[in-house]
Design a protein that fits this description.
Number of strands: 3
Largest sheet: 3 strands, mixed
Order of helices and strands: HHHHHHHEEHE
Strand order of the largest sheet: 1-2-3
Structural class: mainly alpha
CATH superfamily of the largest domain: Cation efflux protein transmembrane domain
CATH architecture of the largest domain: Up-down Bundle
C-alpha cells in the first residue's frame, strides 16, 4: 500500500501542467461570467462565477500543495511535507462551505426582491462555462482517485459543471415562460449541492489531520493481529494514524513472552511483516517490553 500511490516525477510534472492549464482557463471564465451576470442581471450566473472563481483558487492551492508535498523530510519536518495536500483539501472544502452559505443568503434575498434577467445571455455564457467546467474536471479526474487534495479540486469542478447545467435550465425557462423566480431557486439548488458535497468530504481530511485511525482499518482487528504473532504475550498503547493520505502508520508497545527475549528481533520482524501484509501498514514503530517489566494497567489504545 502506501508508496504505490505516489506519482513518479514524469507523472507529477504532467499533472502540474494539467492543473496550470485548468487555472488559466477558470480565471478567464470567471471574468466572463461576472461580466455576463452583471449585464444580464442573473444571480444564478454570478453564483456560478463565484463558484468558478473558488475553483480557480482551489486549483492554485492544490497545485502549491502538490509541489510542497514532494519535498523530502528535513530537520524541520521530520515526517516530510506530505500533509500539505491534506491541509489544502481542508482549505478547499471549507471554501466550498463558505461559498455555499453565501449563495443561500443571496438567493433568499433575491426571492423576496425579484430582478429581471436576460435569459438569452445567461444560456450562452452558462453553455460556455459548462464546456470549460467539464474539461477542467476531466483534467483532474485521474489524479482525484488517489489524492484527497485533487479530489477536493475535482469536486469543485463537478459542482460547477452541474451548476452551469442548472443555470442553462434557468435561463431557458426565463426565456420561454418569464419565470423570474427560477433564477434564485436554481441558485439555492447549486448552493445545496455544494454544501452537500463539501460536508460529505471534509471529514476525511479532518480525520487525517486529527491523527484518526485510517478509514478502512479496524483498530480492534489490528490489535488482535498484533497479539496473535508468535512470541507476543500482550500489546498496549496502540496508535494508528495516517502520516499522509495512503500511508497508514502504527506504533505500539509489544510485550514479549517470558523466556523469549532472545528472539525479540525476530518477533519484531514478524510483527512488522504481519502489519504490512494484512493491513498495508508500511510504517511501524514498536517498543518492546519483557514480560517481567511490562507496563501495568496500560490502555490498549492511546496512553493514560
Amino acid at each position: 500500500m502506501g508508496h504505490g500511490h505516489h506519482l513518479h516525477p514524469v507523472d507529477a510534472a504532467g499533472g502540474d501542467r494539467r492543473i496550470a492549464v485548468a487555472v488559466a482557463v477558470n480565471l478567464g471564465l470567471t471574468v466572463a461570467q461576472v461580466i455576463g451576470g452583471v449585464l444580464s442581471g442573473s444571480l444564478a450566473l454570478i453564483a456560478d462565477a463565484l463558484h468558478n472563481f473558488s475553483d480557480a483558487i482551489s486549483l492554485i492551492i492544490g497545485f502549491a500543495a502538490r509541489r510542497i508535498a514532494r519535498r523530502p523530510a528535513d530537520q524541520a519536518m521530520t515526517f516530510g511535507y506530505g500533509r500539505a495536500e491534506v491541509v489544502a483539501a481542508l482549505i478547499n472544502y471549507t471554501t466550498l462551505i463558505v461559498v455555499g452559505v453565501y449563495l443561500v443568503f443571496e438567493a433568499v434575498l433575491r426571492l423576496f426582491d425579484p430582478q429581471g434577467v436576460d435569459g438569452r445571455m445567461v444560456v450562452w455564457i452558462a453553455g460556455v462555462a459548462l464546456v470549460v467546467d467539464a474539461a477542467t474536471a476531466l483534467l483532474t479526474y485521474s489524479m482525484s482517485k488517489t489524492s484527497v487534495n485533487i479530489r477536493a479540486v475535482f469536486l469543485h469542478n463537478v459542482a460547477d459543471a452541474l451548476g452551469s447545467v442548472a443555470v442553462i435550465v434557468a435561463g431557458t425557462l426565463i426565456l420561454l415562460y418569464d419565470w423570474w423566480f427560477i433564477d434564485p431557486a436554481v441558485t439555492l439548488l447549486i448552493a445545496g449541492y455544494i454544501l452537500w458535497q463539501a460536508f460529505a468530504e471534509i471529514g476525511g481530511a479532518i480525520r487525517i489531520l486529527m491523527l484518526g485511525c485510517p478509514t478502512g482499518l479496524d483498530a480492534g482487528a489490528v490489535a488482535r493481529a498484533l497479539s496473535e504473532v508468535a512470541g507476543v504475550q500482550d500489546v498496549h498503547h496502540v496508535h494508528l494514524w495516517e502520516m499522509q493520505e495512503h500511508l497508514p502508520a502504527l506504533d505500539a508497545h509489544v510485550v514479549i513472552e517470558a523466556g523469549r527475549w532472545t528472539e525479540a528481533d525476530a518477533i519484531k520482524a514478524r510483527v512488522k511483516a504481519a502489519m504490512a501484509s494484512r493491513f498495508g501498514i508500511g510504517h511501524t514503530a514498536l517498543e518492546l517490553e519483557c514480560a517481567g517489566h511490562a507496563c501495568g494497567d496500560a490502555r490498549l489504545f492511546g496512553h493514560a
